[in-house]
Design a protein that fits this description.
about 80% helix
Length: about 220
């Protein structure tokens, strides 16, 4: 993950962050080492800034999935779209800003122990994910690769479902009422988000890329 961050830094120096897709890829590479460091801390039983398990491990998980995978998947949508109207491109830029901006906002909420900030961050990220899902669904008719189309469609549905659970959890923290526990979140949100949304989505974009972007821009 350190080497990935180095690649992200080189992208900054080369100015490869000035488009929405380039910005997302660069942010993904810069976010992932935070997940790597957090995973090492978790495995060694460290308690950075006094945080205990499972928060340390969940930090690693979130910076791999929400910090790395989400901006990267949003970048892929921008790369493979062709001839979309200005409204689509504007929505894509807004989506990218929400996804990338939501991560430090969420981290700040935990560091400051601010329930309102954590709720705001959850809403920002959830809005970005739902917007990404809508953008991906709008691209499906022009994707000729059947495997990619099915995987991306399933991924989009799972992404929206996972964000509903994330907002329910954040609302519970804000209100002081445990609406859903962390183990329950891992079994539901984690499964749907990790396997359904991210894994299927990444595979869908991979199939599309390896088949020369059939029906879409390379």
């Amino acid at each position: 993950t350190g080497l990935a961050a180095l690649s992200g830094g080189l992208r900054v120096l080369r100015g490869e962050y000035k488009t929405a897709a380039g910005f997302g890829t660069t942010a993904a590479l810069l976010f992932i080492p935070i997940g790597g460091v957090s995973l090492i801390q978790s495995r060694f039983g460290a308690t950075p800034m006094g945080f205990q398990e499972p928060i340390v491990l969940l930090t690693a998980v979130h910076f791999h999935f929400a910090g790395f995978a989400l901006p990267l998947m949003a970048s892929m949508a921008g790369i493979f779209q062709t001839g979309q109207p200005r409204l689509w491109r504007t929505a894509h830029a807004v989506c990218m800003a929400l996804l990338v901006g939501g991560m430090p906002l969420l981290a700040a909420g935990f560091v400051l122990s601010a329930a309102a900030l954590k709720l705001a961050a959850a809403v920002v990220l959830a809005t970005g994910v739902v917007l990404l899902c809508m953008l991906v669904l709008s691209l499906l008719p022009e994707i000729q690769n059947v495997r990619a189309r099915l995987l991306l469609g399933f991924s989009a549905v799972c992404g929206a479902a996972a964000m509903i659970l994330a907002c329910v959890y954040a609302a519970g923290e804000f209100s002081g009422t445990e609406l859903i526990t962390i183990p329950q979140m891992a079994a539901t949100h984690g499964l749907v988000n990790g396997l359904g949304f991210v894994l299927c989505g990444m595979l869908g974009w991979k199939f599309l890329a390896t088949n020369g972007g059939e029906g879409s821009q390379k």
